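Allow me, if you will, to draw on your knowledge of protein folds for a short while. A protein sequence and the structure tokens that stand for its backbone fold form the material at issue. I would ask you to consider whether the tokens describe a fold that such a sequence might reasonably adopt. Thank you for your consideration; the sequence and its tokens are set out here:
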Amino acid sequence: MTMESPPEEVVHQTGQLWFQTADYVIFCVMLGLSTLIGLYYGFFAKQKQDNTAEYLLGSKQMKVFPVAMSLTATHISAVTMLGVPAEMYRYGIQYWACSISGLIVTIFMVYVFLPVFFELQTTSCYAYLEQRFSRRVRTLASFLYVLYCLLNVPVLIYTPAIAFSQVTGIKLHIITPIICCICIFYTTFGGIRAVIWTDTLQFGSMIVALCVVMTIGTLQMGGIINIFELADAGGRLIWFNMDPDPSLRSSFWLVSLGLTSMWVSNIGVTPECVQRFLTVPDLSSAKKAVWIFGVGHIIVKLCSVYNGLLIFSKYHDCDPVHSGLVQKNDQIFPYFVLEVAQKIPGLPGMFVVGFFSAALSSMSTLMNTLSGTIYDDFVKPHFSFSERTASNVIKTMVVTIGVICLLLVFVVEKLGSVFSLAISVSGVTSGTLLGIFFLGMFSPYINAKGAFWGAIISLGSMCFIAAGAQLEILDGNLKYPSLPLHYDGCDGFNSTGTANSTFYIDAAGHDNSAVPWVFRLGFMYYSLLGTIIAVLAGTVISYATGGQQKPISDRLLTPWVRSWYKSVRSVDDYEYKQPPQQMQVLLGVKDPAKIHK
């Protein structure tokens, strides 16, 4: 990342803020409670974690509210809490359009995917693909999910480690193993019950801290009107950038269309969500959980957008990266929390706990679900275990997955901002997965060959695009200049000089035209493009290979398609039965069986 640097008149500030004793106490108490929940459900609760139904589904006796809170906590990761405000600070608030995506995703989940998965009642949602297509398609989808988790979890761990390093001075190489060990412990021994109740506790603390910090920050900045006026003057209020150029970093279309496809995939057709929906006793309860989750998801996302305006209003005339207060843009928001809440003992600690809560929630969910997916789709078909042994095998997988993700954190450290990195990584696999399920649920005529090779083509295409774009970024060829930043309010700035106090992160006016057009595609479009490629390729290959030969159960289709398919099947049956009777009249044949012969 290059910058147009300020002149030498700017003196880097050294006024660093750190955690106080009360902050450390609150932080340790929250992590301790998470550990105790794992101990309780692992060793003392009546429901022992010694069978797969209890370990993965909580015996289907969970309540709506904790399940909804767990879902919300899972998808409100530390990337949302830290990465989104930093993105708004640099590039404006066009990301607000994610609220539209959130509403569409909720509707899709309630009326398209949930009825199908709830009827099937399988631990892995990929069992649907085996019933609809073939074992090979199911295995491919499970592999894509394993790849998604192994790429995504390290980003989720790395993000709060950045925040903790900023407020304590402890290197992230020290704190990261601690986070992983605590999460591995309560996920391994407590099962899905511990994951859901820990998520609820952590999400509650995160929301309380978020509301308090937003309130205090708004008051210190002179109120909402002043915050929006400063943001408007700084060019951050970008409500509707309708430019259709797909190579932009952000626009209304990139956010509303690109994120919709990614979230539909990550929420609608991934095991961690489907697994939670199956922990409640009936479909009505599952739908209530989805609506609560949808509303909570949108609200927290919009709060993160507002937090971006808060930090811009605070640092609109002195960028904290240039002043030396923080090292990375992703550390600006935790530093802001320390600065505005330093007079309230324990509040910064509670808020950083919120960052960790979001990361722990996402990590524990993915580890628990991924272990179940690997067991169901790769181990169970080849080995026969007792329920107790199977439960122990899954627990061992959780530990192994956690260790692998911990090692991959040190690779993530070398890459770009957590916001763009998280969406890019997710987009590589989420579009392909969504395409497979779309092919299965929306058309009874797509066959297994079309679904399999459509997914392969989509995955190969998106890996090529994402890897090529990342290499161009690392080489400095592909850049997205930030909106203007200032440093005239920093200590040591020569206000009587003639130097321009405006600068840009990455050189303003950089020309990306030398980069191949396919690598310039906005990262928010990765998932949408992957879905389109999978659907188009799968449809063409299916029809080229004869389509689906045998009728399928209408339970495998979304409710929107079922009634149409039933009517089509009834017409087909009618046409099959009627010609022999008509031929019987015309030819005078009394035995219809002779007509068939």
Q: What stands out?
A: The longest strand covers residues 485-486. Confidence is low (pLDDT under 50) at residues 1-15, 49-59, 571-597. The radius of gyration is 26 Å.
